[in-house]
Amino acid sequence: SNTFCHYNMFNHFFFRVSEQNNYLNFLKDATGEILIVTDPPFGGKCELIGRTLKCIQKDVINLSGNHDQIHTMWIFPYYMERFIQQEIPHIG
């Protein structure tokens, strides 16, 4: 299926090359606004997730040329807001 990918968000790793290709093709064909939604485990390191979100944003820009319409929704406990904003200041 090209609608689901086995993926490790802590290191931006796809477990199958075919799924990585599906991801890249999706970004190439993307038009309009893009919303990245992540709901990682609460114990996950913000630094790793932030780095991966930045990689995804770079992929979006490089493959679709779409740099103004990328939005991120990061689901995490409210008390982690400070750590999230350290990694992605514009998310607040």
Name the average pLDDT: 85
The major beta sheet can be summarized as:
2 strands, antiparallel
Secondary-structure element pattern, one letter each: EEHEHEH
Q: Name the overall outline.
A: globular
Binned strand content: 15-25%
Low-pLDDT windows of residues: none
Amino-to-carboxy terminus distance: 34 Å
Cα gyration radius (Å): 13 Å
Number of strands: 4
Strand order of the largest sheet: 1-2
Number of helices: 3
Which percent bin holds the helix content? 40-55%
Which key terms come to mind for this protein?
3 helices, two-stranded parallel sheet, 15% strand, two-stranded antiparallel ribbon, single chain
What can you see in these coordinates?
With 92 residues, the protein is of the alpha+beta class. It is 42% helix and 15% strand. It has helices at 17-29, 46-64, 81-87; strands at residues 7-8, 13-14, 34-38, 70-74. The strands form 2 sheets. It has a two-stranded antiparallel sheet with strand order 1-2. Strands 3-4 form a two-stranded parallel sheet. The protein is globular, with a radius of gyration of 13 Å. The termini are far apart. 3% of the residues are buried. The model has no long low-confidence stretch (mean pLDDT 85).
